[in-house]
Amino acid sequence: MVFIKTSYFLNKALDNIRQNPFVNLIAIGVIAISFLIFSTFLMLFSNLNSLLALWEEEIQIELFLDDNLSGEKIDALQKKILSMANVKEIRYINKEEALSSFKKSIPGMDVLVKDLNNNPLPASFEIKLAESSKSFDMVKAAAKKLSTIDGVNDAVYGQEWVERFSTSLAIARLVGLIIGAFLLMATIFIVSNTIKLTVYTRKEELEITRLLGATDRFIRLPFFIEGILQGLAGSALSLAGLYLAYRIFIIKVSSSVQASLVTGTFQISFLSTPTITYVLFGGMALGLFGSFISLGRFLKV
Amino acid sequence: MIEMYHVYMAYQRDANALEDINLKIEKGSFVLLTGPSGAGKSTLLKLITCQEKATKGQILVGGRNIVRIRHSSIPYLRRNTGIVFQDFKLLNKRTIIDNVSLPLEIIGKSRKEIKHKAWNVLKMVGLQHKIASYPLQLSGGEQQRVAIARALVNDPAILLADEPTGNLDKENSEYIMELLRRANTKGTTIMLATHDKNLIENYHYRVVGLEKGKIISNG
């Protein structure tokens, strides 16, 4: 019985859509566009987040040592640092290694360096922190603590740009949230108005149905289903559009060397399956809510 | 079946559409409600279906006071009352059989039962060969027969008809009156609003006369 009724209301909703194709296309289009913007933001953030996570993974602290430390002193320092709770790995780089890797990393510099009488680069430790202490705040704290150790000149972890990146990500996240909220409200407004339009085109029919003894539920249910279907179609369309754009982007980017230099081993990924599900459900919820508020103010005979 | 006690109804302040209406309609009776346009015939019928609310007085339908009825109970009241309008009020995008099926869909009957009942009632009004047509493909008389079929498909206790023959010629009017008479002999209480003098003279039903919102004759 329940099944028969559900299919009855579903059929009615589909009839409504068929009878008002233009209005429904507008509603679906509007949902699709706003969800396209919305899910583009989502994809951008999830990728920036995983990029940040990748950097967090690779982050290490370089400790530059005072010159003229004795071998024993360096050994003692190394043991001391390794015994600290959050230090996973430590590697000593002496002055000569530092110079040769400097030469290697910047080709053409060797000419300049060759003329130096003495090696200006300090010896250093490269420290990798334990997985649990890799957030930027913890790295920052650890670096500060390490830099106070006697014999350590300076602690560097690329703080400036990492910090700048993570703050700008936080700002972007906030801006995205605000834009998303406005977009959501605008979409609800437009969806509820398009549904109101379909209600209006069928005003007489609904009044007749009401006079024949239809309950509010009987009249509203097809509209709710219509809203849900519009939301589903709109959000699915936006995902399809975004996926298309993503594929084109990937093909373009993978052929460009410059981009691969910037991103390194990082691969831009599409929305995850759970996120896709959320977007689809979000579309349905939005359609339902839109029809809910458009019918709430209507139909009171 | 229908009782009204000191019923007043005003669309605007100080302008009563109905004034001190007292009326008793027995179960199974056939009553003609007459009077010039603007006398309050339609308003009176609308009170019975809760399309309008009385500003004062009490109205009982089937023993139930409907003046203070809850909004959510109104649909169940209407299911027991068939309505026929002058302008038919059919759904033009739906076929004849779908139009007649609607009251049964509303109360959630099974598809099989709906088909069976709708076909039977269309046969009763002589339109079983037009079930797949759309309302606008039919003549006015045929459309009104569809409307009557729709009003009767639920076997309602009451049938209210507001100028059902107002748009029809003599022959079609007589057919409609015959259909209503048959429904009445099966036990349906009928209230028919009309300003058609021929109807009043040709059929010897009880006539309630309205003028300027008041009952001026009742007999």
User: Looking across the biggest beta sheet of chain B, what order are the strands in?
Assistant: 6-7-8-3-9-10
Ranges of chain B where pLDDT stays below 50 over 5 or more residues in a row are none
Q: Which overall shape of chain A is indicated by the principal axes computed on the Cα atoms? A: elongated
> What's the gyration radius of chain B in Å?
17 Å
The largest inter-chain interface, given as chain pair and residues per side, is: A-B, 19 and 23 residues
Total beta strand runs of chain B: 10
The tally of structural domains of chain B comes to 2
Helical residue percent of chain A? over 70%
Relative strand content of chain B: 25-35%
State the distance separating the first and last CA atoms of chain B. 17 Å
Helix content of chain B: 25-40%
Global structural class of chain B = alpha/beta
Which CATH class of the largest domain in chain B applies here? Alpha Beta
Dominant shape of chain B: globular
Description:
- The complex is a heterodimer of chains A (301) and B (219).
- With 301 residues, chain A is of the alpha+beta class.
- Chain A folds into two domains: 2-55 and 163-296, no CATH class; 60-156, Alpha-Beta Plaits.
- In chain A, 73% of the residues lie in helices and 8% in strands.
- Chain A has helices at residues 2-19, 21-58, 71-82, 95-105, 109-114, 136-147, 159-201, 203-211, 216-254, 257-263, 273-296; strands at 61-65, 87-93, 124-129, 152-156.
- A four-stranded antiparallel β-sheet of chain A has the order 2-3-1-4.
- In chain A, helix 2 crosses helix 9 (216-254) and helix 7 crosses helix 11.
- The longest helix of chain A is centred in the middle third of the chain and has 43 residues, at 159-201.
- In chain A, 25% of the residues are buried.
- The model of chain A has no long low-confidence stretch (mean pLDDT 80).
- Chain B starts with a strand and ends with a strand.
- Helices cover 33% and strands 28% of the residues of chain B.
- In chain B, helix 3 (96-106) crosses helix 4 (111-124), helix 3 runs parallel beside helix 5 and helix 4 crosses helix 5.
- Chain B has 219 residues and is an alpha/beta fold.
- Chain B has two domains: 1-80 and 156-219, Rossmann fold (3-Layer(aba) Sandwich), CATH 3.40.50; 90-155, no CATH class.
- Chain B is built from seven helices and ten strands.
- The A-B interface holds A 1, 4-5, 8, 19, 204-205, 208-216, 218, 300-301 and B 49, 51, 71-72, 75-79, 83, 89-91, 93, 102-103, 105-108, 110-111, 150.
